[in-house]
Structures are given as structure tokens and as C-alpha cells.
Design a protein that fits this description.
Layout: E1 8-13, H1 17-29, E2 34-39, H2 42-49, E3 55-58, H3 67-77, E4 83-86, H4 92-99, E5 105-107, H5 115-136, H6 142-145, E6 159-160, E7 166-167, H7 169-177, H8 190-194
Parallel strand pairs: 1-2, 1-3, 3-4, 4-5
Antiparallel strand pairs: 6-7
Helix pairs in contact: 2-3
Length: about 200
């Protein structure tokens, strides 16, 4: 799906109307065709989220419904919708969420010129994920594979090809299924880099 010539439906959690206007102007300057629904409460956020917007923008410090809580709600209801923080109050938790893949991106309000780029990048990634899911539907399950086994190193996880070459899983699956991998940190590995503070946010 190409969003360049399609109206983008944006759900925006923001309590300051002036900041929302600045965001809209910046997106308009980039030539994007969009419709933005601004909300300030959990009830309104959930109601609009159920309409499956293309993108979620969120401030972090909304008094009645903070951005990290909104992220958790979005994960449960519409986990495939890209989520971008637009805020000047970047926190350690938000940076960890970015590393672990919970947040697509974050843009400082003082650097809104980057927002159109972040929006297009987020939509492109979401489109690629949908395409990936579609491809996986055609992959045979274990029962149809019969006795076919995939040789993999138990230590480094490299995969042995029919040419007896050991290659990284990313290379193997890209050549076989044209799948590209992103590299983040899962919740189990995050504490190894950030200590106990790197646990999953609630």
C-alpha cells in the first residue's frame, strides 16, 4: 500500500491545541494527505483506536492519560498500528520502548521538521510487516514438511545450506523468503544492557 497519494488517518493524543496545530502544519508543508483526530482522554483514544487508524501520534505528558499508558492500550487493541511519540519529554522508558520495538519512533517538538520523514518511514515499515504476514501464510507447517530438517548451530545459530555453508539466519531467510530483519532487544535481553531499569514498562 502506498501512502503518498492516500489519505492517512492519524490518531493524535495531545492536550495542547497549539502543539497539535504545529504538527498539522508541518505535515501539510510536506504535502501529505492526512486526516488527524486529536483526543485527550482514554475513552476517546480507545474509541478512535477501534476505527483502525493508519498511525498513532502521542505526547508523553497528557495529564489524564499519559503516552506510555496509551502505548500499552494500543498494543492490546491494535498492535500493528505504528506509534510515534511527539514530545520534548523523552524518558528512559521511551528510549527502551524504541529499542525493544514497542515504539516506532519519537520526534521532539522542537524538531518537527523530522516528523514527515518519521511518519512515512513508520507507514512503510507497517506496510512491509503486513506483506510479511501475507507471505508467511503460504509457508508449509511442520506436518507438511515431513522429514525435512534445518541444520542450525546450537551455539551461534548459523544455518547450514545445501552447499555446506554456514550463514546467519538473517541472510538465510532473506535469500529464501526475501525477509529483512530489524534488530531490537527483547524484554529478556534488555536488562543485560540497561540493568533492572530496563524491564518492560507498565
Amino acid at each position: 500500500m502506498c501512502f503518498v497519494n492516500k489519505e492517512i488517518r492519524i490518531l493524535y493524543l495531545e492536550d495542547v491545541a497549539m502543539d497539535a496545530d504545529r504538527v498539522s502544519r508541518e505535515l501539510q508543508k510536506s504535502g501529505l494527505d492526512f486526516r488527524c483526530e486529536r483526543v485527550e482522554t482514554r475513552e476517546a483514544f480507545v474509541r478512535e483506536l477501534e476505527q483502525s487508524p493508519d498511525l498513532i501520534l502521542s505526547d508523553h505528558g497528557v495529564p489524564s492519560f499519559d503516552g506510555l499508558t496509551a502505548l500499552g492500550v494500543a498494543r492490546k487493541i491494535r498492535p500493528d498500528i505504528p506509534f510515534i511519540f511527539v514530545t520534548n519529554a523523552l524518558s528512559r522508558e521511551m528510549e527502551i520502548e524504541k529499542l525493544t520495538g514497542g515504539v516506532t519512533d519519537y520526534v521532539r517538538k522542537a524538531q518537527l521538521h523530522y516528523l514527515p520523514v518519521a511518519v512515512l518511514h513508520a507507514l512503510r515499515e507497517a506496510d512491509e510487516r503486513r506483506d510479511l504476514k501475507h507471505r508467511f501464510k503460504g509457508i508449509p507447517d511442520k506436518r507438511s514438511l515431513g522429514s525435512h530438517l534445518l541444520p542450525i548451530c546450537s551455539h551461534c545459530k548459523k544455518i547450514r545450506t545445501r552447499q555446506n555453508q554456514w550463514i546467519a539466519p538473517e541472510v538465510f531467510f532473506h535469500s529464501l523468503l526475501h525477509i529483512d530483519f530489524t534488530h531490537g532487544l527483547c524484554p529478556d535481553c534488555t536488562p543485560k544492557f540497561f540493568g533492572e531499569a530496563g524491564g518492560e514498562s507498565t
